[in-house]
Specification:
By secondary structure, the protein is of the alpha+beta class. The chain has helices at about 25-30, 55-65; strands at about 40-45, 45-50. It has a domain at about 25-65. The protein contains 2 helices and 2 strands. A two-stranded antiparallel ribbon has the order 1-2. A hairpin with a 3-residue loop joins strand 1 (about 40-45) and strand 2.
């Protein structure tokens, strides 16, 4: 079975300390480098999403700089 373009699936093993190694191909595709900070979001029904920290920089800017973002100041 061939995955649709731009879609990927990998496996990772959790070590004794709860650490996982992100597969090299995944690191290359998503430009993940040593020392990068990743954000983990969890949903008990849907699973875990791993995002680069920068994905939420805009949201944090809105929350902490009192910029308008659809809510009250």
């Amino acid at each position: 079975m061939t995955a649709p373009k731009g879609k990927y699936a990998w496996t990772a093993t959790v070590g004794e300390k709860g650490q996982i190694v992100i597969p090299k191909q995944a690191r290359d595709v998503f430009n993940i480098k040593s020392g990068d900070t990743l954000l983990l979001l969890g949903d008990e029904e849907r699973g875990i999403a791993i995002l680069p920290k920068e994905a939420f920089d805009g949201l944090f800017g809105v929350a902490f700089n009192n910029q308008k973002g659809g809510g009250e100041k």
